[in-house]
Amino acid sequence: MPIALSPPFRPRNGLTKFTNCRLLRGDKLVEEDLWVSSLSGKVVNSQAAFFDDLVLPDQTIDLGGRIISPGMIDVQLNGAFGFNFSTLLDDMSQYGKKVKEVQKLLVQTGVTSYNPTITSQRPELYQKALPFLGPSGHLQEAEDGAESLGAHCEGPFLSPTKNGVHNVDVLIEAQTYEDLEACYGKHNLTPRAEGDKIPIKYITAAPERGQMTKLIPELTAKGIIYSVGHSEATYEEASKAVEQGATMITHLFNAMRPLHHRNPGIFGVLGIAESLPRPYFGIIADGIHLHPTTIKIAFNSHPDGFILVTDAMHLVGLPDGAYPWTNGDTTCNIVKVGSKLLLENSDTIAGR
């Protein structure tokens, strides 16, 4: 008489099989299963998994014909759903809760990871807020919702003539690396222990101000990306910054010296004939910040470096109206009309 044997124990392998779903292949949607490993975070070859009888998923999820697409990464987000990352709260534990609320709502927009951005502020705000904005494995763990890849400090080492909506009164210069530590906080620029991540992923600064260009190698040595932005830098000054290790340009064309036929300014470092590595660059393609032809020129100059950013603010997800905004030492209103944001009583574009 045959003996009923219990199935052998099978250790979990972290594989999830999504079935009854559609995937984008080229320019078509095709019906195909998708296997994903939660251990590596990578898509697994479904054909190999199917033909290997020993590989069974830990779970199978029927998506009922829905589309699976890659999550978007927003490298410049100032806030969303009513919360501005450049906000100093009396109880900073509430700041961390607000960040998590934003992250849970952010995935509804298709964004699964992002760089939370703090604009030009007083040192106290950077020092207290940055620990809550670091990448997973710093002070926060990945939970349901979008994941921070590390904070973006947009300022306060910017040009006062290219400040945009940044408060001129809080803009400063750095002469030494200690000046950076005094502003952002030494604890935000130094790992707590070997192998730890620091909360800052990249900074935007004007290389022509103070001794900033000379400080670039020390920043990049710590794994911090240096981005040129809000700057009056000439072509020569921008080239020197790239030579020192700058690998990014913040919202190209906006808040910087314009392209001139005798001095191409910051845009000139994107030329294909340059001997230096060409940096990546952000573009706000909302139909407000840049003319469509300007965007095409930027793309054609360096397609591999082209990054679409939202530069969105905390008014994302809110109805039209006037909303308070902390700007350095002052509080002013930003008026939201559709996708356009303006400083109250002005024509200054505050973002989108």
Automatic annotation (TrEMBL):
What reaction does this catalyse? Answer: N-acetyl-D-glucosamine 6-phosphate + H2O = D-glucosamine 6-phosphate + acetate
Question: Which residues of this UniProt protein bind Zn(2+)?
Answer: E154, H230, H251
Query: Which residue ranges does the record assign to the Amidohydrolase-related domain?
Result: 67-297
Gene Ontology BP annotations: N-acetylglucosamine catabolic process
A single Pfam family it belongs to is Amidohydro_1
What general EC class does the enzyme of this chain belong to? hydrolase
E.C. code: 3.5.1.25
UniProt-annotated catalytic positions = D311 (proton donor/acceptor)
**Superkingdom, according to UniProt?**
Eukaryota
Record key words, sorted: Carbohydrate metabolism, Hydrolase, Metal-binding
Question: A Gene Ontology molecular-function term?
Answer: metal ion binding
- Which cofactor names does the annotation list? a divalent metal cation
Give the cofactor binding note: Binds 1 divalent metal cation per subunit.
Family per UniProt? Belongs to the metallo-dependent hydrolases superfamily. NagA family.
Instruction: Provide the protein name.
Output: N-acetylglucosamine-6-phosphate deacetylase
Q: Which organism does this sequence originate in?
A: Trichoderma simmonsii
Q: What is the lineage of its organism?
A: Eukaryota, Fungi, Dikarya, Ascomycota, Pezizomycotina
